[in-house]
């Protein structure tokens, strides 16, 4: 028996599901998930799957907190949207051109009044001063406008504007390089199963499992490790107030099994012992809880040496009891016997033999 899930699972946070069995004479019983109208709408999740970002609404922020963003301006700009960067640097370039336009215009007028000679040939108004400023900073090259060799302050001002233009260009190029070289998009090739399973392993222990796989073949992930946290919104028995509890779920930190090699898809397992926060959760009670299991996978991208992070989460309605994942890796039935990975089976599960949850 197998259960198949589609990869479009965003709407699952608002629906409960039932299991429907279909039997035919030629094939074994197939168990499929059918979403139904829930009796209780689930609140918004902490981690949005489509963007792999946390959804937190901040309020009562200190009035001067924006100063922290200004002091760390480079990081703020890296995280800014492209239209903000384009608009900001367009304003910076235009402001610098206009600033030196008025400086060239006023200086040339003062120079003419003192010496009766022009410091800049063929510059006599705002338009010609702006063109001279633009040609100087972007190194287009002078035409019939140029500085007289006897105008020493004009030469000094020319050097100052050239250095400022180089500084702005260098900062912009460095920012663009840092922004496009971030491994943020690398997480899009790291896939997680749409559901998590709770079953009983060969030792008779209850365990929580989910699957992760890497689609990209030509850029391996080095030193990949997984961290799992449980966020539980529950009522405090002493005060009757709801609070958000945060607990780590052990997936092999001490033994080192949290470090994985994503050469093939990997099933991550959390043993539900008496010390586990999930120890009291049962198949009947889980849908009445408000929990979210957040997965954090970090690894070094081999081709760039930068650290990539992928976020995923499972709510109480995305955790199935008495199920286990089916294998995704098989040898091709050819003479070479090449290994193949079927990513269509990433979220496919079968009924576990031990279903006493």
TrEMBL record:
Transmembrane segments: 82-107, 153-178
Record's bilayer topology term: Multi-pass membrane protein
Protein name in the entry: Inward rectifier potassium channel C-terminal domain-containing protein
Keyword Electron transport annotated: no
Family: Belongs to the inward rectifier-type potassium channel (TC 1.A.2.1) family.
GO biological process: potassium ion import across plasma membrane; regulation of monoatomic ion transmembrane transport
Chain intervals with Basic and acidic residues compositional bias: 11-22
Domain called Inward rectifier potassium channel C-terminal: residue spans: 190-353
GO cellular component: monoatomic ion channel complex; plasma membrane
Biased composition (Polar residues): 1-10
Pfam families named in the record: IRK (PF01007), IRK_C (PF17655)
Potassium channel inwardly rectifying transmembrane domain residues: 56-183
Residue span of region Disordered: 1-22
InterPro entries xref list: Ig_E-set, IRK_C, K_chnl_inward-rec_Kir, K_chnl_inward-rec_Kir_cyto, Kir_TM
Protein origin, superkingdom: Eukaryota
Example of a GO MF term: inward rectifier potassium channel activity
SUPFAM superfamilies: E set domains, Voltage-gated potassium channels
Compartments, record wording: Membrane
Keywords per UniProt: Ion channel, Ion transport, Membrane, Potassium, Potassium transport, Transmembrane, Transmembrane helix, Transport, Voltage-gated channel
